[in-house]
Amino acid sequence: MKVGLVALNAINLSGAEYGFVYAKVPTRLSEAEIRSLIEQVHGLATEAGVEIDVIDLDASADVAQSKFYTIWQAPPA
């Protein structure tokens, strides 16, 4: 059984050993689906005891050529 970000079909999960993960989770451009995904990711972060600084949306699956848009940012500490 898949759990966590893997269950959401996330890729780009390396880097945790340095304190940062830049996971990429596929989604359709549907407001309801994006809101649901944000809620799921926040739930996973809460369970794991980690903080999320930024959630952004890549305009293309090809990250090298994609523009990204910030859709959620943590309030200033």
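(ticket continues) Second input and output from the same batch:
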Amino acid sequence: MALHHDGFRSRLCPEMPEWLPVHRQRGLGVMHYARPVSPDSARPEDRAMTPRLARFAAAASLAASCALATVPAQAAATAPASATAPMKAPPTVGNFYVSAPHTPRTAKIGARPLSFTIHLRQDSRYHVAISVYLGWWAWTTPGLQQTRGVTVRWLNPENGQWEKPCSVDHSGDFYLGPTDLGLVLAKNQVVQIPVRMWFGPHAKQGTYHLTPGVAWWEVFNSSGQSFPAVLGEVPADGNTYLVHVRR
């Protein structure tokens, strides 16, 4: 089945603020997990642990408010009712199942890599293209130093090659890829992605939360045309594994 898209995915690798609005306009799904913030802490590094998605939502809300403020009152009063009608929510067509079973509980700085395999599956009746990310953070590590000294490589099942992440958010996310159409999953097809993580001399010790997940997705019908659709995740907050990094 040929999958039809309009060639904008080559821009997926830059930082999320640039491509997230494009996904929303074209009907792609974006999934991002919220990392908790200690309620009794107001440190800048803790604030950096809040989901980037929330910051984008606030910026979008402000932009929308500014746009509404510039609409002339007469134009707003005479606008057709259809222009203000709420948009219909896209249908929920299934769920993702993402895990990394048998992830080692310990890793040593300067030693052999932490090795594990991400397992991905979706249960909708459609073909779904996805891109994968890996969350990595610890309470004891300053917010923008979560990925310091950490090197990640993942085995791309499309070409059998070990690759770098396409983008790294230093507050704790490795966006693995792919960067073009993505990995395409049929119903209940299982994809396994081996991952290796090395910890250099500048890596921080601590107990880290490792969370594999789906960064974005796009759903295709039987004709190969994409359409807006939602997939949940089981469990709802993703699977998180604790890894103790020591010297």
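Agent notes: The chain has one domain: 10-53+86-246. The mean pLDDT is 76. Closing as not reproducible unless the customer responds.
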